[in-house]
Amino acid sequence: MTAVFVRGFDFGTTEDQLRNHFEGVGTISTVTFQGKGAAIVSYDNEDAAEKAVSTLEGSTIEGNGRYVNVKIDEGGEAKGGRKGGKGGATGPQVIVRGFDFGTTEDQIRTHFEPCGDIQEIRFLGKGGGSAVIKFASEDEATKAVDMDRSTIDGNERYVNVDFDGKGGGKGGKGGKSGGGKYGGGKYGGGKGKYGGGKY
Asked: Is the pTM of this model over 0.70?
C-alpha cells in the first residue's frame, strides 16, 4: 500500500500544511481530504507510506493543537471480513464501544464524520458507552473501523470500533433492546455477543 489515512488534525488545516508535515518521509503524489479532520496521503512507494506510519503516528502538524493518527490506507480490503464480526460480517453500520458515559451524539458525530456521511447514531442501553453508527456506504464504515482504539475528544479512554454484523446469537429476553430491532440477535440478552442483559 502506498497511501496512509490521516485523521485528527484541526479543522481548517490546509493541503500545504499536510504536505509540509508528511513530505519528509517521501515524495507525495496526492493529498485527498476525507471530510473535515481526515485525509488520504498517497506516496510514490510503499516504503514512504510505512515510514509515515512509523515516524509520524502521534505527531502534531505545525499550527495544530492535537496529534494525528496515521495508518496504512487499506481501502476496501475490509469487505472480505478484515475486521468483521462472526462470519466476517460487514456493511454500512459500525458499533462503537467504550466511550465515556455522558458522551453526546455531537461528540460522536464530530469524531466519526471525517469517515463519511453519518445517517444515524443510535445509543445502546441505559448507561451509555456504546452506540451504532450508520453510514451511507460500506467504504465509509470501513474508514470508521480503521479508527478503532482512537479517543473521542473530551474522553479519557479509547473506543473499540467494529462492523455491526446483525444476528448470529440466539439471544434471550435482553434488556432495553430485547425483543426489538436488536432483540434475539447480536444484542440479545442470552447467548448473543452482548448477552446478559447489559444492553
From this structure: no
